[in-house]
Amino acid sequence: MKINWRAVITGFLTAFVLGLLVAWFVPLTEMSGLVQALPGLIGGFVAGYMVVGVDRGAVHGGLATVIGGVVLLIVWAVFGALFAGLFPAFTGLALGLLVLVAHAIPGAIAGAIGGWIKGRRTTTRETVGTTR
């Protein structure tokens, strides 16, 4: 399967920007975990929508979510090591890797939905053999 890196990067950037906005503007409460899952879902959907098909959408949505999660995890680990110390940073990194695996599944599901919707989209109705 050929990977459409443009779709993966677009989904990643979508998830990254929305993830930063959620981290900055959503206060930590008991229900904020649901809101923090939205950037990965939306990024996966965008990546899946840019390709056609459920299987390709799932792969691209999962890749976009995982790449976005890895970049954010590395940034958080570096800042954690600089400002909190090495032990908290590595503990957070290990916990983040577990969360990353859990976030890849919803991203892949959202990508599959996006690819399915793109495949079901109506096409233009042109008569075969006519020229403009």
Describe this structure in words.
- With 132 residues, the chain is mainly alpha-helical.
- It is 79% helix and 0% strand.
- The chain has four helices and no strands.
- It has helices at residues 5-25, 32-49, 54-83, 86-120.
- Helix 1 runs antiparallel to helix 2 (32-49) and helix 3 packs antiparallel against helix 4 (86-120).
- It starts with a helix and ends in a 12-residue tail after the last helix.
- The relative contact order is 0.18.
Largest sheet: none
Order of helices and strands: HHHH
Number of extended strands = 0
- Shape, per Cα inertia axes: elongated
User: What does the average pLDDT come to?
Assistant: 83
Distance between the termini: 35 Å
User: Helix count?
Assistant: 4
What portion of the residues fall into strands of 2 or more residues? under 5%
Write the layout of secondary structure elements.
Elements: H1 5-25, H2 32-49, H3 54-83, H4 86-120
Helix pairs in contact: 1-2, 1-3, 2-3, 2-4, 3-4
Task: List the main descriptive attributes of the protein structure presented here.
mainly alpha, 79% helix, 132 residues
Short note summarizing the structure:
The chain is mostly helical and 132 residues long. It is built from four helices and no strands.
